[in-house]
Amino acid sequence: MDSTDSTGSTDSCGSDRPAGLLSIGTFARRTRLSAKALRLYDRQGLLTPAHVDAVTGYRSYLPEQVEQARTVALLRRLDMPLADIAAVVRLDGERAAAALDGYWAGVEERHAAQRTLVGYLRGRLSGRSTALRGTFEVKIVEVPETPVVSETRHLVSDELPVWIGTSLGRLELAAEECGGITAPPFVIYHSDVSEESDGPAEACVPVADLEAARAWVKERGRSQGLTARMEPAYRMAYVRITKAQVLYPQILAAFDTVEEWITREGLVCTGPCREVYFADWDTAGPEDEVCDVAFPVR
After folding, report:
1. What tens digit of pLDDT does each residue of 224-262 get?
2. Helical H runs in the chain?
3. 4 falls within a domain
4. 292 and 153, same structural domain?
5. pLDDT tens digits, one per residue of 253-297
6. Contact by Cβ (8 Å): 152, 227
7. Shared-domain flag, residues 145 and 292
8. Which of 50, 84, 195, 269 could form a disulfide with 62 if both were Cys (CB 3.0 to 4.6 A apart)?
9. In which domain, by residue range, is 293 found?
């Protein structure tokens, strides 16, 4: 529709474009983006035209916007959502690069979790579910009697990830006022937690001073559903898993491994299964070990 290529022009429809600007047609050719894509990016705030004709509505762009447009196109090739791209292009160089790193770390984490899930599902579908279980090594450790502050909640599997993080965060703050945290936090599953079964699950943080914990709960924690108690000593059979393997349902392979090993060794489960989180979840990568999947045994 534009009769001229770039600067100081009047197109065939009578649009007056200020000098130095590129028509949308010229800009589209230089950036290898369609006019439709440019209009979408304008609506999303990704790439705002330098000038929009008040009469015709035709868009014009600055020559220096070509590089920004090409950057947007490249980010789209990473399947980055438009809202995330908008946030990135508003940042300066170093902060934009850091935002891209954060996005890509999330992509790699999702891919690692999906890769683990594919392995789990392949085993289920082929009837060779023991293949994935063979990657885990079962170990035994003695766990001493431990005072804990805890929170119990009925919830299904989709609600677990958010609840575990927020609950342990609350409990860790409480523990700091009860002599400090003495061991890795853990979650006990008193009954099955799945898409259809809601547990309950109990998040626990070991503390140094049980009496201080009980006083804290009595004063401030009871309204939040917190308790303070002594977790008995026990022998723990466990396997260590990565951050990617923690996600449901692939974590079930780890639980199955421990249960089958307990049966083969002639041992008996003496309590509900649990997950012990010994690493910093936020800084761990998808292939880093973060959790022990365990059962008390005798």
Report:
1. 779 999 999 999 999 999 998 888 777 888 998 999 999
2. 24-31, 35-43, 65-77, 82-89, 93-126, 130-133, 160-176, 210-216, 251-264
3. no
4. yes
5. 899 899 999 999 999 999 999 999 999 998 998 889 999 999 999
6. yes
7. yes
8. 50
9. 139-297
pLDDT at 128: 63
Convert the pLDDT of each residue in 40-74 to its tens digit: 888 888 888 999 888 888 889 999 999 989 999 89
Amino acid at position 16, single letter: D
- C-alpha distances in angstroms, 143 versus 74, 183, 227, 265, 293? 52, 10, 21, 19, 14
Tokens 């766990």 belong to 143
Query: pTM of the prediction?
Result: 0.63
Place of tokens 């983006």: 33
Residue 245's CATH number:
3.20.80.10
Query: How many Cβ atoms from other residues are within 10 Å of residue 157's Cβ?
Result: 18
What type of residue is 117?
L
d(CA 198, CA 150): 18
Whether residue 283 sits in one domain with residue 162: yes
